[in-house]
């Protein structure tokens, strides 16, 4: 099974951004959101997934709404809800600690990226009981056209004078192996 380079890069960056974390102190923390600060690149026509984790105090929030939105007109954030364009998945786990903290992971998958998906995105979490809101930083998503994405090939001589051709496979393989190693290492900690 070979992975495309965009899938390998996605796995690598998601691996780096998903190390387990818990709130540093349960005092005064009702809700907080975390996700990668790295800009994200995708190719037109391909899927792309963003992940946001919200940690919250279950006793104070009771329930929580976590969602991704697109920054529009510099101040308004439009939630990504169109089921024809986005697939949304939610996972929830309990975090051990002094009080009852939970973590809700919100995944939004662009089913087929378009050039119009280029923009700044943000994750928000809202406690439904207290209406306490946590907003993450803006993340830059850049979508490139398919014609801009090209395979880079080079040729070189082997010891016996035959030409060899190499492509992105070694980079994809290296990123995949690195991602697997980091995932295994982070779960042992």
TrEMBL record:
<feature type="domain" description="Ig-like">
    <location>
        <begin position="23"/>
        <end position="133"/>
    </location>
</feature>
<dbReference type="InterPro" id="IPR036179">
    <property type="entry name" value="Ig-like_dom_sf"/>
</dbReference>
<dbReference type="InterPro" id="IPR007110">
    <property type="entry name" value="Ig-like_dom"/>
</dbReference>
<dbReference type="GO" id="GO:0002768">
    <property type="term" value="P:immune response-regulating cell surface receptor signaling pathway"/>
</dbReference>
<dbReference type="InterPro" id="IPR003599">
    <property type="entry name" value="Ig_sub"/>
</dbReference>
<dbReference type="InterPro" id="IPR013783">
    <property type="entry name" value="Ig-like_fold"/>
</dbReference>
<dbReference type="InterPro" id="IPR039257">
    <property type="entry name" value="BTLA"/>
</dbReference>
<keyword id="KW-0732">Signal</keyword>
<dbReference type="GO" id="GO:0038023">
    <property type="term" value="F:signaling receptor activity"/>
</dbReference>
<dbReference type="InterPro" id="IPR013106">
    <property type="entry name" value="Ig_V-set"/>
</dbReference>
<feature type="signal peptide">
    <location>
        <begin position="1"/>
        <end position="18"/>
    </location>
</feature>
<dbReference type="GO" id="GO:0005886">
    <property type="term" value="C:plasma membrane"/>
</dbReference>
<protein>
    <recommendedName>
        <fullName>Ig-like domain-containing protein</fullName>
    </recommendedName>
</protein>
<dbReference type="Pfam" id="PF07686">
    <property type="entry name" value="V-set"/>
</dbReference>
């Amino acid at each position: 099974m070979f992975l495309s380079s965009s899938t390998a890069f996605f796995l690598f960056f998601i691996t780096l951004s998903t190390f387990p974390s818990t709130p540093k102190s349960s005092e005064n923390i009702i809700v907080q959101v975390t996700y990668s600060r790295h800009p994200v690149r995708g190719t037109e026509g391909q899927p792309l997934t963003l992940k946001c984790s919200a940690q919250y105090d279950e006793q104070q929030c009771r329930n929580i709404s976590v969602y991704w939105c697109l920054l529009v007109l510099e101040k308004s954030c439009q939630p990504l809800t169109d089921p024809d364009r986005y697939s949304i998945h939610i996972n929830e786990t309990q975090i051990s600690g002094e009080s009852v903290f939970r973590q809700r992971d919100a995944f939004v998958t662009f089913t087929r990226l378009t050039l119009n998906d280029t923009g700044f995105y943000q994750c928000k979490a809202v406690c439904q009981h207290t209406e306490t809101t946590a907003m993450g930083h803006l993340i830059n998503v850049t979508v490139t056209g398919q014609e801009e994405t090209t395979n880079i090939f080079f040729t070189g001589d082997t010891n016996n004078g035959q030409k060899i051709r190499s492509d992105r496979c070694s980079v994809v393989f290296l990123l995949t192996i690195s991602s697997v190693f980091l995932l295994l290492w982070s779960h042992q900690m």
